[in-house]
Write a structure and sequence with these properties.
176 residues
């Protein structure tokens, strides 16, 4: 494969021309980040153009190997998704509330660990004064414009702790 065949193969694969710079390959190339292919002496270089700087990733002795490497890099979609096991599918269908509760507990543990890390003075966000927030209010405060922590939802059929009915209708007066 030469660079002209590479251009055609990339177009056929639907890779936007802005993602690569190849000599002699037409296209609108005004990106700030892209892959490049270029000849330098008897070598072919493939690299990335990021933040105004070029970094060579691979050197090849022939154009074919360089073109094939770049094609593979630009068209690789990652591993195919794996399907759910029957047990995972059953859990998702029948225990979504349990999954949400476990996820919430894991999030709470992670947030508590982060608060402890910040209290111990090992870095973290600042309060705008340059000092790390170390008080309980700092650790629990939500960013402006974002909702605070959500209370855990009751399981179906349970009443919320404040006694409100969660289902849109009030329960019957006789308690059923």
């Amino acid at each position: 494969m030469d660079r002209f065949q590479l251009c055609e193969a990339l177009r056929a694969a639907g890779v936007p021309a802005a993602h690569y710079e190849i000599p002699g390959c037409p296209g609108d190339r005004r990106p700030t980040e892209s892959y490049f292919l270029r000849a330098e002496g008897s070598a072919w270089l493939v690299g990335v153009h990021e933040r105004g700087e070029r970094r060579v990733l691979e050197r090849f002795t022939d154009e074919d190997a360089a073109c094939r490497w770049l094609y593979d890099r630009l068209t690789y979609e990652g591993p195919p998704p794996t399907g759910l096991t029957p047990e995972e599918r059953d859990e998702l269908l029948h225990d979504s509330d349990g999954i949400q509760r476990r996820a919430r507990r894991e999030l709470d543990r992670a947030l508590a660990a982060e608060r402890e890390r910040r209290r111990a003075g090992k870095g973290g966000a600042t309060d705008g004064t340059g000092a790390a927030g170390t008080g309980p209010a700092d650790a629990d405060a939500a960013a402006p414009g974002t909702p605070g922590p959500r209370p855990e939802r009751p399981r179906s059929g349970e009443q919320p702790p404040d006694g409100r009915h969660s289902g849109g209708q009030q329960p019957p007066a006789d308690g059923r």
